[in-house]
């Protein structure tokens, strides 16, 4: 059986564990049960040191669970409380296939994928690969819209994160500085935010980031047939807000929201507004 994580005490609430690929343990939170009447909401977190499903979406998924939705909030391999092997390649394709297995084992036949950053790229790739299973997509500052060579060099947040990972910093002050690059207001980065992520980062192998490869979708986004809601923070330092216009120009059925009040973590910086917009879109 796959091992459970060594982090103790846990930096995030402990949910459930499930074996995937006959080798690894994936951690996830779940509320409710899959139903033929309503799609499951699957919350897909972003990348970055210490990320997890809970830390990305703890201000969101309980709201939708209270509205009667079945919700799943997984940690990808290499993140959160899931296994973190150092001998695999952490590609978006890996995450898509592990998600496919998780949904199958949790009896989910129809889903709305809600993804931030890397999670947005995974949502796009899943929607393109398994369109019959996806009823709608919600993405916030998604990756995969354009080749990184075109834009990555000018994003201050990415430069800061790259240096942080390469130097493998683990002190609290440096970690706070990194997280403050992600948001529009430094006040968003509370001690609780740091406490939920720093212990996870300390346990992550560098392979999680050095081998990370995200598919670039470009014109393939035009193949998406399901409705898409795309939200972007005007002050995003990691993925260019201009990509929102590319998304708007390519996807057939899309609504785009750009907020001057948010950076890269729209769902945490404006949780009430985010929850309302998504609920309206779902209805």
Strand content: 15-25%
Gyration radius from CA atoms, angstroms = 17 Å
Tertiary shape: globular
Query: SSE order, as H and E?
Result: EEEHHEHEHEHHHHHEHEHH
Q: Please count the helical segments.
A: 12
> Separation of termini?
41 Å
How many strands, what sense, and barrel or not for the largest sheet? 8 strands, mixed
CATH superfamily: Alpha/Beta hydrolase fold, catalytic domain
Helix content: 25-40%
Instruction: Work out the number of β strands.
Output: 8
Our count of domains comes out at: 1
| The CATH class | Alpha Beta
Question: Helices and strands: which structural class?
Answer: alpha/beta
Poorly predicted parts: 1-5
Q: Give me the side-by-side strand order of the main sheet.
A: 1-2-4-3-5-6-7-8
CATH topology: Rossmann fold
The CATH architecture comes to 3-Layer(aba) Sandwich
Mean pLDDT rating: 96
Folded structure, characterized:
The protein is an alpha/beta fold. It has a single domain, classed as Alpha/Beta hydrolase fold, catalytic domain (Rossmann fold), CATH 3.40.50.1820. 36% of the residues lie in helices and 17% in strands. It is built from 12 helices and 8 strands. α3 (92-105) crosses α4 (118-129). It is globular. The termini are far apart. The model is unreliable at 1-5 (pLDDT under 50).
